[in-house]
């Protein structure tokens, strides 16, 4: 009975994750109509919401409305990136990036879910890698990376978030899921997916531009 209940909650996490992608898609479409001057405030709001989510995580009080509002805003702020690579390398590159992301996410999710060993020991290494990506990303704003440097950075980012997908699915399997954790776990999967998508889009965009 407990296994059936756990499977049901796990399916609920995937359902909320799927809905969050729909909200992000709606945000992506809305981004076409948002003035560029508003993108920076929205990005700041997005970062603030991520920080808030980590703070609320301890209280397990991240709600569905929070998740859907965040993913909608995330879709808006992702639009300039998608539009840039679509104009530079073609719309088909965006579709290829999304398809590749979906495929990698599915494969890594299955690997994480079927792995019998608890991969919790990877948490520190993944956090360090994530902080390094953030630091390099901030540094590149003031000192832009070369095309080769950006390609290497994107490959590393794609690997890190692929491992995060494995890690998150593995932790859900080994540590169980309660009803109140559903929104937060769905948000974690969304962050894995959208970051993986952006890094893959950058890889394909750079390679497509160089052809």
Number of strands: 0
The total count of helices amounts to 7
Question: Could you tell me the mean pLDDT?
Answer: 88
pLDDT under 50 segments (min length 5)? none
% residues in beta strands: under 5%
Distance between the termini: 56 Å
Order of helices and strands: HHHHHHH
Q: What structural class do you assign from the helix and strand content?
A: mainly alpha
Main beta sheet, described? Answer: none
Please state the overall shape, judged from the principal axes of the Cα atoms.
Answer: globular
Helix-residue proportion: over 70%
- What is the C-alpha radius of gyration, as a whole number of Å? 17 Å
What's the number of domains?
A: 1
Overview in brief:
The protein is mainly α and 211 residues long.
Describe the structure.
The chain is mostly helical. It has one domain (1-210). It is 85% helix and 0% strand. It contains seven helices and no strands. Helix 1 packs across helix 7 (182-210) and helix 6 packs antiparallel against helix 7. The model has no long low-confidence stretch (mean pLDDT 88). It is a multi-pass membrane protein.
Topology, please?
Blueprint: H1 2-30, H2 36-57, H3 64-89, H4 91-114, H5 123-142, H6 147-175, H7 182-210
Helix pairs in contact: 1-3, 1-7, 2-3, 3-4, 3-7, 4-6, 4-7, 5-6, 6-7
